[in-house]
User: What shape does this take?
Amino acid sequence: MTAATSDHRVRLGFRDGDKGVHSSRTLMLAELEAALAATDAAAGVADFRRAIVEENVLGKRSATTREHTVRKLKALYGLDPAVPVYAAMRRIWSDDPEGHPLLALLCAVARDPLLRASVEKVLGTPVGTEVTAADLEGTVRASFSTSTRDAIVSHLLSTWTTTGFLAGSATRRRVRPAATPGAVAYALALGFMEGGRGSLLLSTAWTRLLDCPPDELLNLARQAARRGWIEYRSAGDVMDLRVDGLFTEEQREWCDGR
Assistant: This one.
């Protein structure tokens, strides 16, 4: 990855490197849902800090814990409408409550390298097959201490279970999550940010993360178009997908590398 490419990804809201929130927390889905419900769509980090720290909408006991929660949520999701990775998710969030687990997962994978490193292991496990702590430990860098590796694996198992890819407690087996039109629209938007265009948006790492059969994926994309999140056109064998409506004009220019 070149420096320019790295700078471009940072501006869009992607986070790379070898550190991530899953060293100390899970996906924090319940906290995210409560924080977004307590703020409007234009809210930025200062608004989230006010809601979480001052108003204590998450019901945390201490100010220190509230501040820590804000920092972790910001690291995982951005919490800034000027950050395209977060903004596209937020535009869909309120209108697709069933899609919250996958919307959160997609955003967190974009922003947490520790979670991203486990994607191939989980997706590559056949449905019905057990996924163990040892399986996910293999996705964590050996340079971490044993205690840190154990914590990361525990958090990863929780996140993949919360988002519908694993089921069970003592034994966790691979299952298929329930994709929604909103989750598909957001996956297409993430693919667009990474350079995908047109029908190629249906075959990116982000749509693969939905673990959705191709015919179902296309059907959900059509539903997303009917909901106004994306544009879908088809004439014979020619298909065109556009996600421009999920971005401001300036953000679309960023996606084009300008």
User: Anything to note?
Assistant: Residues 181 and 219 are 9 Å apart (CA to CA). The two ends are 18 Å apart (CA to CA). Residues 3-111 form one domain.
